[in-house]
Amino acid sequence: MGAEIAAIFGGAFVIALSGALMPGPLLTLTVAHAARRGFISGPLLMLGHAALELALIAALIYGLGPIIQKDAAKGAISLLGGVALLWMGGGMARSAGGMSLNIGGGEEKPAGAAANPVMAGALASVSNPYWIFWWATIGLGYLISSMKLGVAGVAAFFLGHISADFLWYSAISLGVSGGRKMLTDKVYRAIVSVCGAALIGFGGWFLFAAVGYLLK
Description:
Layout: H1 2-21, H2 25-37, H3 41-68, H4 71-95, H5 117-126, H6 129-146, H7 150-177, H8 185-214
């Protein structure tokens, strides 16, 4: 069981890192806050992000538990998740060569709710259509797989997922607060390429699982 838990943690980490690498609202907020508050901004933003996702996981398990335990539902969710992973992985692999990690332009002061980094982390997540799409397909599919091992499996999924977010955005926050880029574009593109290939592999695994559920 220990190996399975480790596999769930590692898979959740890689999939979450792949999503975190793509520029979006959280990256913009991390740059803006880190330029003013320093390194702690990244972890604080992720604290709000993590609280939101923990609440979402609890809602999915307790609200949709009876539904997502059915083989037909598992198959449909795994199928959607697999297609989404293949689409995301292919897109990352194709665009990696021209991507640039631009962490400049953080001089603007966050205003309103965005001024509180914990709240801003949660708001930026829930207002992002990509985040909603991710959880409705990939996140839910991986959550179903982790539920096979009970509480330990779900905990491994969540910890692996959120660890990737904390690691990446803390690195961005550190780079901005230090006044220099700690990741070159070349390294960034290599990471994106590897993660894109990994997503394609996970997509195939999700589709294989979907066939198993739907043929029962």
